[in-house]
MmcQ/YjbR family DNA-binding protein (Christiangramia crocea), 119 residues
Amino acid sequence: MNIDTFRNYCLSKKAVTEHLPFGPDNLVFKVMGKIFSIVSLDEIPLRANLKCDPDRAIELREEYDGSILPGYHMNKQHWNTLVLDNRLNPELVFGLINHSYELVVNSLSKKLKKEFEDL
């Protein structure tokens, strides 16, 4: 999967913004100000960090050994790094983006959830 496909999918989700807070090589996607994905633009192949349920994270790492890794520079219990070298099915990647996004949305404070719902 290339950066344009990944980026466009993330930006198609409600209330998502993109930022470069860690410099020009790390594209960050946030929902309501909370990070749900970080993409390393300087990596070949492209790598993306996504939040993940801890039990599911372990299962994914075992099933997709070498393509889904513990989250690089992240809490390895709650984050995975996806190696986007076309070995992972795009539908799986989109599903994992959705999962990360939903985890963050579900963890929003009452105030932020209300703002989110009102958008």
User: Anything to note?
Assistant: Residues 105 and 113 are 7 Å apart (CA to CA).
